[in-house]
């Protein structure tokens, strides 16, 4: 009888069952999706130069092969985010995996430049669903260990980049770019093969009022981990918020009316059923962090993919800039340097793991953005090949750390009802940065404007670091919520818990 009066949330359940075998299986599945995206992105460093030689492409046409992928991701990240928030995480990444695998494989058979451009754009649309998988995995992790395991999840991206660099090193000189495109589409196919056994997010189910289905999944999690669920009845955070709000309303009648003349509780009108998911990102509680997050995602994507492309474009320390110089050795050096700099992501992940909770999400991101500026600064002038590779290696450590942490911070910042949409839109803005970076890394470098290219990277990275410092709150150690994040912080970085329910605004 006592248990029937007790309630618990998804967070309570996950904390009770802990991180165990079930989450490891979820991690493997989501990680395969992350490997797939990393491989599809890394191959751009190799396919562009190869096609420029094979099909006699101009620098603009070579850049377009990369840019159309980011254009597709710009569309896909928003589209799949909305789909996942309205129809479920599983349906979101099922569609993305199908589009990515089919379009990726057909890219290997493309008969001409324009068909390849079209198919790579479709690949980009599929890759835009990456934030859906990361949010889905995040919603299975107990709050105390969320930061650490999201860093582990990010390691799959590094595995994908190094694996792709290794495959390219062996495949490109012997089999050519078509085989590389074909091999790179296989991880997405694995997502489709194992899709039937993948569970829906219990947090999403609770938000939609499907607590019975959520309980079934949580019971499976508990059984697999060898633990027991808390006693009582499973309820959503939204139900608890409504109960607390009702209690506050009743208590308000016992207080003098003058108590509310100076302070008005910030309550969103739940009768506004026509508020869109995207519109909630611009609510007073979320508009500032949303806009700042867009700048940071833009800067991260611009600088990360720019560094990858710079590794192939700054392949030597030449003082002259003839487009045909050292053409015969270009590809061999590019494979080696990209392979070496890809290993920079491992130190970046280790730094993320050690700093994400000690310095917080904001502290670790801002520190590494500013350090990245320092490492890139000497490249304003031409450097010997070894120095160039070393500086790019250190810069990539920094930008890997910021990329890792922002993909943890972003879904923690948003409530469940708009989580994948918020991260998806931010990721879309990042794709704009990805679209623009080839014009800098390829266009400016080929045009003998290395100094201008590096200074532009410096500005974007520095501005991103400043925006991180302006984030209004820290998410380290906070439980995920179905309500908007607090908008105020106290003097020592703690949070004033003034969560406002928004889940009732989204169907």
From TrEMBL:
Residue ranges of domain Major facilitator superfamily (MFS) profile in the record: 26-476
UniProt-listed InterPro entries: MFS_dom, MFS_sugar_transport-like, MFS_trans_sf, Sugar_transporter_CS
Keywords from the UniProt entry: Membrane, Transmembrane, Transmembrane helix, Transport
GO cellular component terms listed in the entry, alphabetical order: membrane
Name of the protein described by the UniProt record: Major facilitator superfamily (MFS) profile domain-containing protein
One protein family per Pfam: Sugar_tr
The species this protein was found in: Artemisia annua (Sweet wormwood)
Predominant place of localization: membrane
């Amino acid at each position: 009888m006592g248990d029937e009066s007790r309630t618990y949330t998804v967070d309570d359940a996950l904390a009770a069952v802990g991180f165990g075998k079930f989450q490891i299986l979820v991690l493997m599945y989501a990680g395969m999706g992350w490997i797939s995206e990393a491989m599809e992105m890394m191959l751009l460093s190799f396919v562009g130069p190869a096609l420029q030689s094979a099909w006699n492409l101009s620098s603009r046409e070579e850049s377009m092969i990369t840019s159309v992928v980011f254009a597709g991701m710009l569309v896909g990240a928003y589209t799949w985010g909305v789909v996942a928030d309205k129809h479920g995480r599983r349906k979101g990444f099922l569609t993305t995996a199908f589009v990515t695998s089919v379009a990726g494989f057909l890219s290997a058979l493309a008969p001409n430049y324009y068909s390849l451009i079209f198919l790579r754009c479709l690949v980009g649309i599929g890759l835009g669903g990456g934030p859906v998988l990361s949010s889905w995995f995040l919603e299975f992790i107990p709050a105390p260990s969320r930061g650490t395991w999201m860093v582990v999840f990010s390691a799959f991206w590094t595995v994908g980049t190094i694996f792709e660099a290794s495959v390219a090193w062996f495949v490109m000189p012997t089999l050519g770019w078509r085989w590389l495109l074909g091999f790179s589409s296989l991880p997405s196919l694995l997502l489709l093969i194992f899709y039937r056994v993948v569970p829906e997010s219990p947090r999403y189910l609770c938000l939609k009022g499907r607590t019975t289905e959520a309980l079934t999944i949580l019971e499976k999690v508990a059984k697999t981990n060898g633990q027991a669920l808390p006693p009582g009845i499973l309820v959503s955070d939204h139900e608890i918020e409504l109960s607390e709000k009702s209690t506050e309303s009743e208590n308000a009648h016992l207080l003098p009316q003058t108590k509310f003349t100076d302070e008005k509780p910030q309550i969103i009108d739940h009768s506004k059923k026509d508020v869109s998911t995207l519109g909630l990102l611009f609510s007073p509680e979320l508009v500032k962090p949303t806009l700042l997050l867009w700048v940071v995602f833009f800067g991260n994507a611009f600088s990360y993919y720019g560094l990858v492309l710079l590794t192939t474009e700054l392949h030597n320390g030449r003082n002259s800039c003839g487009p045909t110089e050292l053409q015969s050795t270009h590809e061999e050096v590019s494979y080696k340097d990209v392979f070496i700099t890809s290993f920079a992501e491992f130190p970046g992940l280790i730094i993320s793991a050690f700093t994400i909770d000690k310095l917080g999400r904001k502290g670790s991101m801002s520190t590494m953005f500013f350090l990245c500026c320092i490492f890139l600064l000497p490249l304003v002038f031409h450097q010997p090949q070894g120095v160039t590779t070393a500086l790019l290696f250190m810069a990539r450590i920094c930008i890997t750390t910021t990329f890792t942490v922002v993909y943890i911070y972003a879904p923690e910042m948003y409530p469940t009802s708009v989580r994948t949409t918020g991260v998806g839109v931010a990721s879309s803005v990042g794709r704009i940065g990805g679209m623009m970076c080839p014009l800098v890394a390829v266009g400016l470098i080929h045009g003998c404007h290395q100094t201008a290219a590096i200074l532009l990277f410096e500005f974007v990275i520095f501005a991103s670091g400043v925006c991180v410092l302006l984030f209004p709150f820290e998410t380290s150690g906070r439980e995920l919520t179905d309500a908007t994040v607090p908008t105020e912080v106290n003097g020592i970085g703690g949070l004033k818990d003034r969560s406002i329910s928004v889940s009732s605004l989204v169907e």
